[in-house]
Specification:
alpha/beta, 18 strands, about 25% strand, binds xanthosine-5'-monophosphate
Length: about 500
Amino acid sequence: AVLVLDFGGQYCQLIARRVRECSVYCEIKSYKTPVKELAKKNYKGIILTGGPNSVYDEKSPHCEKALFEMGVPVLGICYGAQLMAYTLDGKVGGCEVSEYGKTEFSVTDAESPLFQQVPKTSACWMSHTDRITEVPAGFRVTADSKSCPISAMENPEQKLYAVQFHPEVQHTEFGQQILKNFLFNICECKGDWVMSSFIEQTIQEIQEKVGNKKVLCALSGGVDSSVAAVLVHKAIGKNLTCIFVDHGMLRKDEGDQVETIFRKQFDMNLIRVNAGEQFLRKLQGVTDPEKKRKIIGEGFIRTFEAESRKLGKMDFLCQGTIYPDVVESGVGNSATIKSHHNVGGLPEDVGFEGIIEPLRDLFKDEVREVGTQLGIPENLVWRQPFPGPGLAIRILGEITAEKIATLQDADAIFREEVANAGLNKKISQYFAVLTNMRSVGVMGDGRTYDYTVALRGVATSDFMTADWARIPYDVLEKSSERIINEVKGVNRVVYDITSKPPATIEWE
Ligand code: XMP
C-alpha cells in the first residue's frame, strides 16, 4: 500500500482517490501517527498532503525527521513540500504575491523521474502563500514557475520528491502522469490492486486480528454497517453477532427488511431490539434538534450496551465507519457542524479489546462496490444515506407515534415515485420532512387544517456541499397528489429549493 499522510489539506481524499485510480491501494493516516508505527507497515511510498498552515507557525502540524530517513519514497505536495524542505533544513518563506489558481510551470530537469512524459511547460494548480526559498542539502530544483522559482525539488538518492502545486486536481494537466511516475517509477508499485483484493486482504486481516474471539457489530441497516458486517461475517462466521437497535424511527418497513436480509439471506446471528416505545418516551416534549440527537445517540448506546451485556464477553466491536465520516466528525482535521451519532459513538468503557473498522479508508462508491461483490442485494447497496437519528430529525418539533407514521407514509410515496421515474440512483439523497406547520386547505367541501410535508432532493458527491435536485415537475406533482390523497393529516406539499450551504441537507 501507499500511505497518504494527512496534514489537514482539503485535497486529502482526492489524492487517495487518484492513487486508487492507478490501481494502487492506499491508506490515509493522520500526520500524528508516529514514524515507528508507520515503519511497521512496509509502505511502498508516502504522500504528504497540502494543508492550510505555515510551517513556521508553532501550532501547525509537523512531522519527525525520521519520516524522511526510512528509505521509503516520499512525495510532498504543497504544504507537504514545504514541510519536507523545512524539516531537512532548507528554507521556506512567504511569497511576494500568493499564487492561487491555474499557473504555467516548466520542468527544468528533463531527467527527473517525476516528470517523465510531462512536457517542458504545462498548466498546474497552485494554491499557496508560502514557498520553498532554498532547497535542503542534496536536493536539486526540477521545476519552476514565474512567481515560484522552486516549484519542484528532488533528492533521488534519498527518494524524496516535492511539488509546490497540486498534481491531484484536474486543473493540473499532467497531474495524473506525475502521480503515476511517483507510484510506478519511484515507488515501484505494481498497479494490480482491485476491489476483490481489498476484500481478500481485509478478510485475512480480520481473521488474523480476531482469531477465535468474538465480535459484536451495531447494525443500522445502512450501507456502511451492512457491508462491514457482511465482510466480518465472511471472515469469522458465527463468531460475529449483530445487534440491530430499531429505534422506531426508520423508514417504512425498513426494520423488517434488515431482519430478512441478514437473518435469512446471510444466516447471521442477528438480534433485533424493538425499542421504539422506549425512545418515544424519552423524546416526549423535546423539540430542540441537538437535544433530540443527544437523546437518540445516548439511548442507542445504552440499549446497545444492555443488549450486549446479555451476550457475555465480546472481544471486538465492528463499526461501519467510512472515510468521509472520519473527516466529517472532526476525527481528521475538519470542523463539526452536527453531532453524528454513529461515528466513534460507542463509549470506550464497554470493555472491548479493540475496534474493527474494515471500511475506514474507503469512499462511498468503493463501499458499494465491495457490497455488490459480497452479494448484498442491490436495493440495500444503493440505499441512500440515512441519518442515525432517523426520522426524528425529519419531524420538526415534538415527535409522536402518529407523526412518525404520517412521515413514513409520505416518504414511502415520494421514494416510490422517484424510483418509478428511474431517478433513484441519480439523486444522491431524497426524502420527505414533516414540518411543524399547519395550514388551511380545502378538500371536498370541507375546510382542513393539516400539516405541510416538505420534499427534499439533493445532488452531491460528498455530502459536504449539495445542490437542490432538479426533480422533474411531473414527479413532484405525482408525489404531491398521492401524498395528499393517501396520507391522513397532510394537506400541503412543498419542495425545498435550498442548497448546502447555506442550508444543511437534513432539516435538523
Ligand atoms: P447535513 O444535514 O449535515 O447532512 O447536511 C449531511 C449528510 O449526513 C447525514 N446525516 C447523518 N448521518 N448520523 C448519520 O449517520 C447523523 O446524525 C446524521 N446527520 C446527518 C445526512 O443524511 C446527509 O447525508
